[in-house]
Amino acid sequence: LWGLLAGVLCSLSYAGVILLLSDQKDPAERLVSLTAGNVVTAVFFLPFCEWSTVSSNSVLLILTLGFISLGLSWIILTEVLQKISAVEFAILGKIGPVMNPVWVFLFPPHEIP
Description:
The chain is mostly helical. 77% of the residues lie in helices and 0% in strands. It is globular and about 45 Å long. The protein starts with a helix and ends in a 7-residue tail after the last helix.
């Protein structure tokens, strides 16, 4: 039950992000909104971190991964949102996770999901 509720809340929040971003016309405003949302989320979940396993190397890796995987993708999607509708934006944002198992299967070493 808790997993289903979390999934519904996640879907609703993703829809809210798309709708709110589609209303903002300036890409800089969109990036500020996304950055603020990510910072608030990080601060909210900091108390739940397992601090005994945190090292400076792991923090550096997490920040690097965050800037590259989240930051770069959000920058690209906010730029694209100027040219497409909110529905197209939502579909584009979900192509990657859906296609990941396909790419893993198609390219060497041909792992089976």
